[in-house]
């Protein structure tokens, strides 16, 4: 039945699915002789694509957020994952934790000298 190209549109309508779905099933039957899901290699990822994207969005939007806060937010969504898993997901897209450089505050003397410099160079 699947060798006839005329039957493809008929099967699409009959099964109420997209043409590529029917073709994928036919291809699977030709290659493996079955249409059931075959065993895969490796462990499936703990984070779904949707949760991973939300996690990346959240981390990019708030740069000072901690891994613990991100872990709690993903647990609220429904997927409880370890901090290391979150860290790996962020590292894969180039987001890394950094410690901001310490920068001392300006003293009164600094402020006065800056103001004096600025007022002396107003007309330049």
UniProtKB/TrEMBL annotation:
<dbReference type="GO" id="GO:0003677">
    <property type="term" value="F:DNA binding"/>
</dbReference>
<protein>
    <recommendedName>
        <fullName>Transposase Tc1-like domain-containing protein</fullName>
    </recommendedName>
</protein>
<dbReference type="InterPro" id="IPR002492">
    <property type="entry name" value="Transposase_Tc1-like"/>
</dbReference>
<dbReference type="GO" id="GO:0015074">
    <property type="term" value="P:DNA integration"/>
</dbReference>
<feature type="domain" description="Transposase Tc1-like">
    <location>
        <begin position="52"/>
        <end position="122"/>
    </location>
</feature>
<dbReference type="Pfam" id="PF01498">
    <property type="entry name" value="HTH_Tnp_Tc3_2"/>
</dbReference>
<dbReference type="GO" id="GO:0006313">
    <property type="term" value="P:DNA transposition"/>
</dbReference>
<dbReference type="InterPro" id="IPR009057">
    <property type="entry name" value="Homeodomain-like_sf"/>
</dbReference>
């Amino acid at each position: 039945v699947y060798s006839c190209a005329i039957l493809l549109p008929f099967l699409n309508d009959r099964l109420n699915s997209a043409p590529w779905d029917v073709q994928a099933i036919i291809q699977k039957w030709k290659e493996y002789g079955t249409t059931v899901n075959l065993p895969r290699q490796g462990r499936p990822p703990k984070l779904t694509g949707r949760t991973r994207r939300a996690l990346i969005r959240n981390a990019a939007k708030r740069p000072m957020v901690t891994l613990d806060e991100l872990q709690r937010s993903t647990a609220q969504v429904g997927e409880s994952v370890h901090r290391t898993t979150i860290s790996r997901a962020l590292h894969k897209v180039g987001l890394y934790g950094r410690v901001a450089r310490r920068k001392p505050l300006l003293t009164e003397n600094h402020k006065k000298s800056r103001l004096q410099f600025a007022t002396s160079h107003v007309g330049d």
